[in-house]
Amino acid sequence: MVRKEIQVLSKNTIDQIAAGEVIERPASVVKELTENAIDAGASAISVEIKKGGISEIRITDNGCGIPVKQIHTAFLRHATSKLRKAKELDSIHSLGFRGEALSSIAAVSMVTMITKASEEDFGSQFMIEGGEEGELQEIGAPDGTTFIVRNLFYNTPARKKFLKSQQTESGYVQSMMEHLALSHPEISFRFSTDGRERLQTSGNGKTEDVVYQIFGREIVKNLLPIEQKTEYYSLKGFLGNYTVNRGNRDFENFFVNGRLVEDKILRKAVEEGYRGFLMQHQFPFAVLFFQFPDGTIDVNVHPAKKEIRMDHGPEVLSLLSAAVHERLTRRDDIIAVTLTKEKKEDHVTPKVSALPFEEKHLKQVNRAVEEHAASVLKDTAISRYTEEVTKPVQMSFLSEKSRPFYRIIGQVFDTYWMFEYDGKLYILDQHAAHEKVNYERLMASLKNKTMTSQMVSPALIITLSIQEAAALEEHRADIEALGFAFESFGGHEYRITATPGNLYSIDTKHLFMDLAAQAVSWKADEESALIRERVATIACKASIKGNQRISQMELEKLLDELLMLDEPFHCPHGRPTMVSLTRDELDKMFKRIVS
Ligand code: ADP
Ligand code: MG
Asked: For burial by CB atoms within 10 Å, which of 155, 162, 165, 241 has the most?
């Protein structure tokens, strides 16, 4: 090995390395600079970004400003006005304190800062690019500070390569802004991307107003306030009731001593508290603010300070989950909430009219099904079905009106139906049967261009996470092909104005939410036919559940359709729709015959 001389790294190199830890993406710049503005006592903070924050981030606050003499120092690594000695680390209440943000940001972008300290007569403009200090000029400016950060990672192309699409990056910034706004209801925040306003909060100090401004009316009217004081922590915040449960954790928001955290103990406690109120793979809506006494938690575990360590994990876990559970079981609220929900939504009879589905979607659908039939997925349920429906025999086999002959005996356990058919006794699982019929219908409708859509009036309002909304937009064509029509309604809210027309007993609102939650994990370039099959599967899962009473007439309609299918005995996922007992088998059971 060739011995190389040991050298101290240059300031710029050190700053760039440090920037790697602190500044990962535009959202981290926004976080650091907004937290600085909060620490500076601002009551109004405006954040504008362009092109996902990669080309420009502009943050203006009306805080205390930086005195001209300290400007140079502020951009030095480990320069901070917030921490003097290591022992203060336990009791620190400001958001920043490592003194790394400004030096890191300046190392990997082009920064212009305009600041005026309230005690000084003039403001200053300072430029620093890639860590190289530029000029410092005196200029007229209001009290406070503006940062303009341009061309993030222009001098570190390897980092730039790791950024996601502009849309995704601005989504991260938006989430960040929402969390900052939630943890500081006393500050008025404005946030816009490429000139479009995305968030504005009033700064009136009321958390529920911020929740409303971010998540909208649907969420707010289904919130239960929760408060708890224990020897380990105190808690204030809101829990969503069961009507706003979600398909992912996007809506679990935990703040500890004013800081957004992702903590396993808190998450587990809350989810345990919801046990019995959540179906499998469902997660709650929660905005919870915790105060832990100084010295009992360590927020300095992670450079972005998202993780914490706490002294009394097990105690916190059990106290918190108990409080959440208690809050959810308190009867008064549940009744009140159910009543308003019923009055406002369920009891409004939607005006329904069938529309032939839009031609362009049908073309896409058709092409997708065609491609699919030819593809390698030949033996999946879809292609099997595609081949089957193209057989002309299928339709003449049994004319639409001719009913298979069966005799219904009755229903047991609100789930199973018994009937006699073709010399056998059948026991049918009504949910699996619905799923099967819906799935086959859906695939056939998509293929035969007979998918219909129902107008819904008034429109259904739902709340989506930023990730869900982005995924829905990405897969809009596939979801519209089902018969849905939807549009952004501002903030996180979406309006559903039409729902699938020819599906049985489906909770369309939940179907849409399920689609949104799952679409997050679909790849952008996934084959359309594959998406289509998933969509159909999800739609079918939303079919009437077991344990839901259906009338004998409804069952007859279902059986008529089911028994006309080529393979009526299994639902699309392989579960049986019915089991049968022959006369012989029964006779054997009762030892009438011995085999
Ligand atoms: P830290 O926040 O950890 O102290 P930073 O690098 O983020 O480190 O900031 C360095 C210092 O610059 C801060 O301690 C603060 O004194 C000053 N500063 C940064 N941003 C602002 C601002 N918006 N208003 C007033 N002072 C600021
Ligand atoms: Mg800081």
From this structure: 241
Q: Average per-residue pLDDT in the chain?
A: 80
At which residue do the structure tokens 């212009």 appear? 112
The pLDDT value recorded for residue 304 is 61
94 lines ligand 1 (CB under 6 A): no
Establish whether residue 143 lines the binding site of ligand 1, counting it when its CB lies within 6 angstroms of any ligand atom.
no
Shortest-distance ligand to the CA of residue 82? 1
pTM over 0.70: no
Reduced to 3 states, what is the DSSP secondary structure of residue 66?
coil
The whole-number pLDDT of residue 220 equals 87
Q: Is the beta carbon of 62 within 6 A of some atom in ligand 1?
A: no
Residue nearest to atom 15 of ligand 1 (CA): 81
**CB 366, CB 449: distance < 8 Å:** yes
Q: Is 97 in the pocket of ligand 1 (CB under 6 A)?
A: yes
Radius of gyration of the chain (CA): 30
Tell me the two tokens of residue 46.
Answer: 């405006």
Q: What is the number of the ligand closest to the CA of 60?
A: 1
Structure tokens at 492: 């996180």
- Cα(80) to ligand 1 centroid in Å equals 6
The pLDDT value given to residue 333:
42
Q: Quick check: 283 and 247 in contact, CB under 8 A? A: yes
What backbone torsions phi and psi does residue 577 show, to the nearest 5 degrees? -85, -25
CA separation for the pair 395, 389 (Å, rounded)? 8
User: Residues 6 or more apart from 31 whose CB is under 8 A from it?
Assistant: 176, 180, 304
